[in-house]
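Posting for a labmate who doesn't have an account.
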Amino acid sequence: MAKVRILMAILCAGTICFAQNINKNSKSVKISVDGLPAQYTALRVDTLSRCILSLPDAASLIAIPEGRTEYLKNISGTNKSEHTKIWNAKVQLVYQWKYRLNYLLIPQGGMETSAPVFRETEGTTPVSEAITGDPQESDFFAFANPRRYYFNSQEAAMNSAVKHAKQRISELKGLLCTK
């Protein structure tokens, strides 16, 4: 039971490490975890390495459109107000992080009472990102103050979502694992 609690604490700490902004240089997290064996009070996790195993192929990205009807006023700068079909789309990016963690279980009462426990673990964790289109790229708008932009065609919404997903993939390419 104690091994399961320690493993769960490590996995939770690992998740916290990955939740950090990937552009930060922070390599270490210290957290207090409920459920650690009584002789330990804290857990410190150092990220030894992390990289992305593989990214989706940019050419095979498919956007999923979503349409809804809204009542819009002052459509495209005119006095026209009516119910109009507007669109948005999203692309789901799924990839996996590969990580290697070094963790330290700190004993209760500090390191003077007994030796800390050092361990190293590695594994993978899936990541899923929803990338949506940006209506600001459209020339269709409504309302006067503030002006709000919408996609008035399914294709425009899908093209915008795919464009942004390709940009995200190109940002993540620098984090790919070296073979």
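Reply:
Got it, the structure tokens are right above this. Residues 109 and 177 are 40 Å apart (CA to CA).
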